[in-house]
Amino acid sequence: MFTPSVIHATVCFPAFRATSSRDVMRARHRITMDCSEEVQSLSDEASTPIELKKGMSIFLDILRRADKNDDGKLSFDEFKAYFSDGVLSADELKELFHAIDTHNTNNVDTDELCEYFSQHLGEYENVLAALEDLNVSILKAMDKTKKDYQEATHLEQFVTRFLLKETTSQLQSLQSSLECAMETTAEQTRQERQGPVKPEVLPIQWSGRRSNRRLQRNNSLSPNNPLLNLVNSGLYEEDNQWITQINRLQKLIDRLEKKELRLEPVEEEVLESSTKSHILIVQRQLSVLEEDVDEFRLALRQYIDCASTQTGCLHVAVQRLANESRFILYEFWEQSNMWKNHLQTNYSKTFQRGNVDFLETPEIMTTMLVPASWWVLNNN
Question: What residues does the EF-hand domain cover (predicted)?
Answer without folding.
Answer: 54-89, 91-123
